[in-house]
Design brief:
The chain is an alpha/beta fold and 298 residues long. It has helices at 16-30, 40-44, 71-78, 106-114, 137-159, 170-193, 206-210, 234-238, 263-268, 288-294, and strands at residues 6-10, 35-39, 57-63, 87-94, 118-126, 195-197, 216-219, 222-225, 244-246. Strands 2-1-3-4-5 form a five-stranded parallel beta sheet, sandwiched between helices. A two-stranded antiparallel sheet has the order 6-9. Strands 7-8 form a two-stranded antiparallel sheet. β1, α1 (16-30) and β2 form a beta-alpha-beta unit. α1 crosses α5 (137-159) and α3 runs parallel beside α4 (106-114). The protein is globular and about 55 Å long.
Protein backbone atom coordinates (compact mmCIF):
# COMPACT_ATOMS: atom_id res chain seq x y z
CA UNK A 1 0.00 0.00 0.00
CA UNK A 2 1.39 3.39 -1.00
CA UNK A 3 0.57 6.55 0.92
CA UNK A 4 0.77 10.18 -0.14
CA UNK A 5 3.85 10.65 2.01
CA UNK A 6 5.16 9.62 5.41
CA UNK A 7 6.23 11.96 8.18
CA UNK A 8 8.54 10.44 10.75
CA UNK A 9 9.08 12.33 14.03
CA UNK A 10 11.81 11.26 16.41
CA UNK A 11 13.73 12.21 19.50
CA UNK A 12 17.24 10.86 20.00
CA UNK A 13 19.59 11.53 22.88
CA UNK A 14 22.83 9.77 21.99
CA UNK A 15 22.11 8.85 18.38
CA UNK A 16 20.64 5.33 18.54
CA UNK A 17 17.11 6.40 17.66
CA UNK A 18 18.30 8.87 15.04
CA UNK A 19 20.33 6.28 13.18
CA UNK A 20 17.35 3.89 13.22
CA UNK A 21 15.02 6.67 11.98
CA UNK A 22 17.39 7.23 9.06
CA UNK A 23 17.47 3.51 8.29
CA UNK A 24 13.65 3.49 8.30
CA UNK A 25 13.72 6.39 5.86
CA UNK A 26 16.09 4.47 3.58
CA UNK A 27 13.86 1.38 3.74
CA UNK A 28 10.74 3.41 2.90
CA UNK A 29 12.48 5.12 -0.03
CA UNK A 30 13.64 1.78 -1.44
CA UNK A 31 9.96 0.90 -1.62
CA UNK A 32 9.16 4.13 -3.44
CA UNK A 33 7.47 5.60 -0.38
CA UNK A 34 8.10 9.31 0.14
CA UNK A 35 9.22 10.11 3.67
CA UNK A 36 10.36 13.15 5.60
CA UNK A 37 12.18 13.15 8.94
CA UNK A 38 11.55 15.69 11.70
CA UNK A 39 13.40 16.06 14.99
CA UNK A 40 10.78 16.48 17.68
CA UNK A 41 12.77 19.16 19.50
CA UNK A 42 12.95 21.28 16.34
CA UNK A 43 9.16 21.34 16.16
CA UNK A 44 8.70 22.10 19.87
CA UNK A 45 11.26 24.93 19.64
CA UNK A 46 9.55 26.39 16.58
CA UNK A 47 12.51 25.75 14.29
CA UNK A 48 10.40 23.69 11.88
CA UNK A 49 6.73 23.70 11.03
CA UNK A 50 4.66 20.79 9.77
CA UNK A 51 1.66 20.62 7.46
CA UNK A 52 0.28 17.49 9.06
CA UNK A 53 -2.59 17.18 6.61
CA UNK A 54 -0.20 16.51 3.72
CA UNK A 55 0.90 13.16 5.17
CA UNK A 56 -0.96 9.89 4.88
CA UNK A 57 1.13 8.05 7.45
CA UNK A 58 3.07 9.19 10.52
CA UNK A 59 5.72 7.51 12.60
CA UNK A 60 7.11 8.39 16.02
CA UNK A 61 10.46 7.15 17.29
CA UNK A 62 11.98 7.49 20.73
CA UNK A 63 14.52 5.90 23.05
CA UNK A 64 13.36 4.13 26.20
CA UNK A 65 14.31 6.40 29.09
CA UNK A 66 13.53 4.81 32.44
CA UNK A 67 10.76 2.57 31.02
CA UNK A 68 9.10 5.55 29.29
CA UNK A 69 9.33 7.72 26.19
CA UNK A 70 10.49 10.94 27.92
CA UNK A 71 8.44 14.07 28.53
CA UNK A 72 9.67 15.73 25.34
CA UNK A 73 8.02 13.04 23.19
CA UNK A 74 4.83 13.10 25.24
CA UNK A 75 4.59 16.89 24.89
CA UNK A 76 4.99 16.57 21.14
CA UNK A 77 2.20 14.02 20.80
CA UNK A 78 -0.07 16.14 22.99
CA UNK A 79 0.28 19.05 20.54
CA UNK A 80 -0.54 17.00 17.45
CA UNK A 81 -3.71 18.06 15.65
CA UNK A 82 -6.82 15.90 15.72
CA UNK A 83 -7.00 13.26 13.00
CA UNK A 84 -9.68 11.27 11.26
CA UNK A 85 -7.96 7.90 11.16
CA UNK A 86 -4.46 8.71 9.86
CA UNK A 87 -2.40 5.51 10.25
CA UNK A 88 0.47 5.76 12.73
CA UNK A 89 3.34 3.61 13.91
CA UNK A 90 5.72 3.87 16.85
CA UNK A 91 9.24 2.49 17.18
CA UNK A 92 11.50 2.59 20.20
CA UNK A 93 15.16 1.83 20.82
CA UNK A 94 16.33 0.27 24.07
CA UNK A 95 19.43 -1.35 25.48
CA UNK A 96 17.35 -4.45 26.04
CA UNK A 97 14.42 -6.03 24.17
CA UNK A 98 13.17 -7.34 27.52
CA UNK A 99 9.47 -7.46 28.33
CA UNK A 100 9.85 -4.63 30.88
CA UNK A 101 10.43 -2.17 28.02
CA UNK A 102 7.33 -3.21 26.06
CA UNK A 103 5.10 -0.58 27.66
CA UNK A 104 7.41 2.39 27.12
CA UNK A 105 5.35 3.70 24.19
CA UNK A 106 1.91 3.04 25.65
CA UNK A 107 1.24 6.62 26.73
CA UNK A 108 2.21 7.77 23.24
CA UNK A 109 -0.12 5.21 21.69
CA UNK A 110 -2.99 6.27 23.94
CA UNK A 111 -2.50 9.94 23.05
CA UNK A 112 -2.47 9.07 19.34
CA UNK A 113 -5.69 7.06 19.56
CA UNK A 114 -7.39 9.72 21.66
CA UNK A 115 -6.62 12.20 18.88
CA UNK A 116 -8.09 9.93 16.22
CA UNK A 117 -4.95 8.33 14.77
CA UNK A 118 -5.00 4.66 13.86
CA UNK A 119 -1.93 3.51 15.80
CA UNK A 120 -1.43 -0.03 14.55
CA UNK A 121 2.28 -0.87 14.78
CA UNK A 122 4.46 -0.79 17.91
CA UNK A 123 8.02 -2.13 17.75
CA UNK A 124 11.21 -2.27 19.79
CA UNK A 125 14.79 -2.42 18.53
CA UNK A 126 17.70 -3.32 20.79
CA UNK A 127 20.71 -1.04 20.44
CA UNK A 128 23.97 -0.38 22.34
CA UNK A 129 23.54 0.54 25.98
CA UNK A 130 24.39 4.18 26.78
CA UNK A 131 23.53 4.03 30.46
CA UNK A 132 25.62 2.40 33.23
CA UNK A 133 26.61 -0.74 31.26
CA UNK A 134 29.24 -0.89 28.51
CA UNK A 135 28.39 -3.66 26.05
CA UNK A 136 31.11 -5.57 24.28
CA UNK A 137 31.52 -4.04 20.81
CA UNK A 138 30.80 -7.43 19.27
CA UNK A 139 27.35 -7.22 20.85
CA UNK A 140 26.95 -3.60 19.75
CA UNK A 141 27.64 -4.62 16.17
CA UNK A 142 25.43 -7.70 16.46
CA UNK A 143 22.50 -5.64 17.75
CA UNK A 144 22.86 -3.03 15.03
CA UNK A 145 23.04 -5.67 12.30
CA UNK A 146 19.91 -7.29 13.71
CA UNK A 147 18.20 -3.89 13.88
CA UNK A 148 18.91 -3.29 10.19
CA UNK A 149 17.19 -6.57 9.32
CA UNK A 150 14.24 -5.80 11.58
CA UNK A 151 13.80 -2.33 10.07
CA UNK A 152 13.28 -4.00 6.69
CA UNK A 153 10.70 -6.38 8.16
CA UNK A 154 8.91 -3.65 10.09
CA UNK A 155 8.81 -1.39 7.03
CA UNK A 156 7.05 -4.12 5.04
CA UNK A 157 4.59 -4.62 7.89
CA UNK A 158 3.90 -0.89 8.19
CA UNK A 159 3.32 -0.36 4.48
CA UNK A 160 1.06 -3.43 4.37
CA UNK A 161 -0.78 -2.27 7.52
CA UNK A 162 0.18 -5.44 9.37
CA UNK A 163 -0.32 -4.84 13.09
CA UNK A 164 2.47 -5.42 15.59
CA UNK A 165 1.59 -5.32 19.28
CA UNK A 166 3.76 -5.39 22.40
CA UNK A 167 1.74 -6.50 25.41
CA UNK A 168 2.67 -5.98 29.04
CA UNK A 169 0.86 -6.78 32.28
CA UNK A 170 -1.12 -3.63 33.22
CA UNK A 171 -0.12 -3.84 36.89
CA UNK A 172 3.56 -4.05 35.98
CA UNK A 173 3.07 -1.21 33.54
CA UNK A 174 1.75 1.04 36.32
CA UNK A 175 4.71 0.19 38.54
CA UNK A 176 7.21 0.90 35.76
CA UNK A 177 5.34 4.08 34.89
CA UNK A 178 5.88 5.31 38.44
CA UNK A 179 9.61 4.58 38.15
CA UNK A 180 9.68 6.44 34.85
CA UNK A 181 7.99 9.53 36.28
CA UNK A 182 10.42 9.61 39.20
CA UNK A 183 13.38 9.46 36.83
CA UNK A 184 11.86 11.92 34.38
CA UNK A 185 10.97 14.47 37.07
CA UNK A 186 13.88 14.08 39.47
CA UNK A 187 16.67 11.99 37.96
CA UNK A 188 17.61 14.50 35.28
CA UNK A 189 17.66 17.40 37.74
CA UNK A 190 19.94 15.49 40.10
CA UNK A 191 22.24 14.50 37.25
CA UNK A 192 22.40 18.06 35.92
CA UNK A 193 23.43 19.45 39.31
CA UNK A 194 26.59 17.40 39.03
CA UNK A 195 27.51 18.34 35.46
CA UNK A 196 30.64 20.41 35.03
CA UNK A 197 33.16 21.22 32.31
CA UNK A 198 36.84 20.36 32.39
CA UNK A 199 39.69 22.66 31.39
CA UNK A 200 39.62 21.06 27.93
CA UNK A 201 36.36 22.91 27.17
CA UNK A 202 36.89 25.30 24.24
CA UNK A 203 33.51 27.04 24.55
CA UNK A 204 32.56 25.74 21.10
CA UNK A 205 28.93 25.90 22.34
CA UNK A 206 27.93 22.68 20.60
CA UNK A 207 26.28 21.52 23.83
CA UNK A 208 24.38 24.82 24.13
CA UNK A 209 22.99 24.52 20.62
CA UNK A 210 22.18 20.84 20.70
CA UNK A 211 20.55 20.43 24.11
CA UNK A 212 16.95 19.35 23.39
CA UNK A 213 15.54 21.28 26.34
CA UNK A 214 17.80 24.37 26.11
CA UNK A 215 19.15 23.45 29.54
CA UNK A 216 22.76 24.47 28.81
CA UNK A 217 23.95 28.06 28.59
CA UNK A 218 27.12 30.13 28.32
CA UNK A 219 27.52 32.36 31.37
CA UNK A 220 30.55 34.58 30.84
CA UNK A 221 33.40 32.18 30.17
CA UNK A 222 31.62 29.23 31.76
CA UNK A 223 29.12 26.62 30.65
CA UNK A 224 26.22 26.29 33.09
CA UNK A 225 23.55 23.64 33.43
CA UNK A 226 19.95 24.32 34.50
CA UNK A 227 17.14 22.22 35.92
CA UNK A 228 15.42 21.10 32.70
CA UNK A 229 17.74 18.15 32.07
CA UNK A 230 16.01 14.98 30.86
CA UNK A 231 19.11 12.82 31.35
CA UNK A 232 19.38 12.02 27.64
CA UNK A 233 23.20 12.11 27.84
CA UNK A 234 23.58 13.90 24.52
CA UNK A 235 25.85 16.62 25.86
CA UNK A 236 28.19 14.16 27.56
CA UNK A 237 28.61 11.88 24.57
CA UNK A 238 28.67 14.49 21.79
CA UNK A 239 31.18 16.95 23.28
CA UNK A 240 34.12 17.07 20.83
CA UNK A 241 36.60 17.54 23.68
CA UNK A 242 34.92 15.09 26.11
CA UNK A 243 34.90 18.07 28.46
CA UNK A 244 31.46 17.61 30.03
CA UNK A 245 31.81 15.48 33.12
CA UNK A 246 29.36 14.02 35.59
CA UNK A 247 30.17 14.36 39.28
CA UNK A 248 26.83 12.90 40.35
CA UNK A 249 25.70 9.48 39.18
CA UNK A 250 28.97 9.33 37.26
CA UNK A 251 28.70 5.55 36.90
CA UNK A 252 25.84 6.05 34.42
CA UNK A 253 28.31 7.36 31.82
CA UNK A 254 29.58 4.62 29.49
CA UNK A 255 33.20 5.00 28.41
CA UNK A 256 33.92 4.77 25.62
CA UNK A 257 30.45 5.00 24.13
CA UNK A 258 30.39 3.21 20.78
CA UNK A 259 26.67 3.36 20.04
CA UNK A 260 24.80 5.90 17.95
CA UNK A 261 26.74 7.16 14.97
CA UNK A 262 29.90 5.40 16.20
CA UNK A 263 28.21 2.22 14.98
CA UNK A 264 29.12 3.09 11.42
CA UNK A 265 32.79 2.66 12.36
CA UNK A 266 32.05 -0.65 14.05
CA UNK A 267 30.43 -1.88 10.85
CA UNK A 268 33.70 -1.17 9.02
CA UNK A 269 35.81 -2.99 11.63
CA UNK A 270 36.71 -6.31 10.01
CA UNK A 271 38.24 -7.57 13.25
CA UNK A 272 34.80 -7.36 14.90
CA UNK A 273 32.80 -10.37 13.74
CA UNK A 274 29.55 -9.20 15.35
CA UNK A 275 29.03 -12.53 17.12
CA UNK A 276 28.60 -12.24 20.85
CA UNK A 277 25.26 -13.73 21.89
CA UNK A 278 25.01 -17.40 20.94
CA UNK A 279 23.06 -20.48 21.96
CA UNK A 280 25.67 -20.94 24.68
CA UNK A 281 25.11 -17.51 26.23
CA UNK A 282 24.06 -17.47 29.87
CA UNK A 283 23.07 -14.88 32.44
CA UNK A 284 21.93 -11.42 31.37
CA UNK A 285 22.87 -11.84 27.71
CA UNK A 286 20.83 -15.00 27.21
CA UNK A 287 17.60 -13.03 26.90
CA UNK A 288 18.84 -11.40 23.68
CA UNK A 289 18.77 -14.74 21.88
CA UNK A 290 14.99 -14.91 21.41
CA UNK A 291 14.97 -11.33 20.09
CA UNK A 292 17.79 -12.01 17.65
CA UNK A 293 16.03 -15.11 16.31
CA UNK A 294 12.50 -13.69 16.41
CA UNK A 295 12.14 -12.49 12.82
CA UNK A 296 14.49 -14.93 11.10
CA UNK A 297 13.00 -15.87 7.81
CA UNK A 298 10.33 -13.18 8.24
Amino acid sequence: MQDRKTAMFYFSGTGNTEIIAKRFKDAFKRRNQGVELFRIEDILKGKRSVEYGTYGLIGIGHPVLGFGASGIVERFVEQLPESCGTPAFVFKTASSPHYVNYGASNTILRHLRDKGYEAFHNSILAMPCNFFVKYDDRLNKQLYMAALEKVEIFTEEILNRTPRVLRINPVLEKVLRTVYYMEDKHGGKSFAKGLTTASSCTLCLKCVGSCPTSNINKNGERITFGQECIWCMRCVYSCPQKAIQATRLRSCVVEPYTGGHHLLKLMEDTDNDGHFVTERSRGYYKHFLAYLKEDEGG
